[in-house]
Amino acid sequence: MDALAHLASGFAAALSPAYLVYAFAGCVFGTLIGVLPGLGPAAGTAILIPLTFQLDPTGAIIMLAAIYYGAMYGGTITSVLINVPGEAASVVTCIDGHEMAKQGRGGTALGIAAIGSFIGGMVATAALALIAAPLARFALKFGPPEFFALMLLGLCLVSGLAGRSLAAALLMTVLGLLVSMIGIDPVRGAPRFAFGIADLYDGLGIVPVVMGLFGVAEILITAEQPVRRIIRTSFAQLLPSRDEWARSWGAIVRGTGIGFGLGLVPGIGAIVPTFMAYIAEKRLSQTPERFGRGAIEGVAAPETANNAYANAAMVPFLTLGIPSSPTIAVLMGAFIVNGLTPGPFLFQERPDLVWTVIASFFVGNVILLVLNLPLVGLWAKILHVPFRYLAVGVAFFCVLGAYSLQQSVFDVWVMIGSGVVGYALRKLDLPLAPLVLGLILGPAIEKSLRTSLEMSGGDYGIFFTRPLCLALLIAAVAVLAGAALRLAPKELRAA
Amino acid sequence: MTPQARSHRAAERAVLVCLCALFAAAAGIAYGYSLQDDLGPGAGFFPFWLGVIGAALCLVLLAQSLRGRAIGDGAEGLSPDRAGALRAAALLGGLVLTALLLEPAGFRATALVVTAGLLVALGVRRPLAIGAFALASSFGLFQVFHHWLRVPLPVGPFGL
């Protein structure tokens, strides 16, 4: 009842004209970002942070969260029409979505994606509203050892599921953690790795680094590639036929369950639920041979799972302060820029903000559906804008975004440097997500580790004598062992 | 092994060696920050162990690479064609030039010049389109961010 009362007051605030405008603007900008090739949701959300500088914290978070959702949907349009996923989670949608577009059913593919995303998003947000508060209350009982173990589990999950090589993913995690050590030591206050450079005393900004790793690196890689052909498809029929509905509803229900369930696990990434939803549909189908040839379930299931995941990923983020993906890591940066720390204490200290933001997720999902079904033809037209103009525009927006955070050219250099590093790492297939999450969680994980050891007088037994902490550590080891076993046959083959 | 795979493997090893050196240097520097003090782990404790673990992982990956196992499949393609490489280099050069000119020349002048130059470098040959786009991304963006959104942007000589 408490949650319902809070949610009701959240709706009262979220439906105020100003917040509705912010949510609407966020959905428009987000969809635009998702549609633009060469700009994923992480970089897109990062470069649009300056747009929110003049807003109150609640308005800023509402707008950025709407950008996140919009970008997740916008990626679908490029997947269907040009066979290029706007973001990693839309990779699976390319398989059948692009086939549908080639058959002249692109409008239906985008229509079922919008409907599935809406249903998945609404159900996941309802579940978020129900479980977030109890989980936050439970998390209040966590001490530094439990937080350390939880963050370690999150990093292990990201490392275990990213890329083809566990060692490479772990290397990127460690690199992210090490880069986060630059600046003032969070426990003793001593400068580290600053080399007397004043700009380094505050460490490297998360937002410029993410803009560089994802935004600059992406436009450099896209600039190298030849121009892609855009499928001209019909948008006359957006709603599926009766037969297509019959095939899709089960996929939507299962996609919601898979997306929500996996979204609760910190660090799992959006690509896993979409693949799992697709594979589940293919296995359950009586005609699996249709998959890969334009099966509507192959679009409905991953797109629903994607949006359910996007909403569910807010649970570990809001209640535990653990970002599940690079885009949520950017949102975390926006919280910090606004003087807010995501985690269990946020529910105690700023319930007005938390519940207004949760209510705005419902509102944002409705706006996205209303915006995307009738305007899908318009979004598709944006794909025809020549890449030369987009690349220059995106590059300048990145500069603007990095500079305006602190009015510092140093941040622009950090962004450019991160862009070159991101470009090189992508060329070598070294995963970027573990690096970003390591960078974000580094200070907190170090602080909880050192505080735990101070509590125990240097005795590492503190991590093994507290049941919850021990369980989380066992889970972390199990995740890494599972990933090692999964990848072991490949290594044996290679040897 | 194709020449492209060979160059991919060489680049991979070069990056791993550089990373290994970076981690080793970080561990060395962190060792100087004190690993332990009266209250518990010192400022160097966490970065020291990160440096050690990172260097060890680099060595593992290097050993795998020497045994013939690449980190990934090189899906992005290590070396693009000449035209693609020039486009990417032009964009990177434009970003570097922007960072160099932003404060001394101001946002508007920098954006005007760099945007127009980049469009030409990327193959746009329509003066009207170049002019309109350059004006929008310099004076237009300045108007939106500096005046409407109150985001301070650098102003150079002659108020540009």
Note the topology.
The complex is a heterodimer of chains A (495) and B (160).
Chain A: H1 2-14, H2 17-35, H3 41-47, H4 57-82, H5 91-102, H6 106-139, H7 144-161, H8 166-179, E1 183-184, E2 191-192, H9 206-224, H10 242-263, H11 271-284, H12 297-312, H13 314-320, H14 326-337, H15 344-349, H16 351-382, H17 387-406, H18 409-427, H19 433-455, H20 462-465, H21 467-494
Antiparallel strand pairs in A: 1-2
Helix pairs in contact in A: 1-16, 2-4, 2-16, 3-4, 3-9, 3-14, 4-5, 4-6, 4-12, 4-14, 4-16, 5-6, 5-12, 6-10, 6-12, 6-13, 6-16, 7-8, 7-19, 7-21, 8-19, 9-17, 9-18, 10-11, 10-12, 11-12, 14-19, 17-18
Chain B: H1 3-31, E1 36-37, E2 40-41, H2 45-66, H3 82-105, H4 107-121, H5 127-148
Antiparallel strand pairs in B: 1-2
Characterize the structure shown:
The complex is a heterodimer of chains A (495) and B (160). With 495 residues, chain A is mainly alpha-helical. Chain A has one domain. Chain A contains 21 helices and 2 strands. Chain A has helices at 2-14, 17-35, 41-47, 57-82, 91-102, 106-139, 144-161, 166-179, 206-224, 242-263, 271-284, 297-312, 314-320, 326-337, 344-349, 351-382, 387-406, 409-427, 433-455, 462-465, 467-494; strands at residues 183-184, 191-192. In chain A, a hairpin with a 6-residue loop joins strand 1 (183-184) and strand 2 (191-192). Chain A is globular. The mean pLDDT of chain A is 84. With 160 residues, chain B is mostly helical. Chain B has 2 domains: 3-66; 82-159, no CATH class. Chain B has helices at residues 3-31, 45-66, 82-105, 107-121, 127-148; strands spanning 36-37, 40-41. In chain B, strand 1 and strand 2 form a beta hairpin. The model of chain B has no long low-confidence stretch (mean pLDDT 88). Chains A and B meet through helix 8, helix 9, helix 17, helix 18 and helix 19 of A and helix 1, strand 1, strand 2, helix 2 and helix 3 of B.
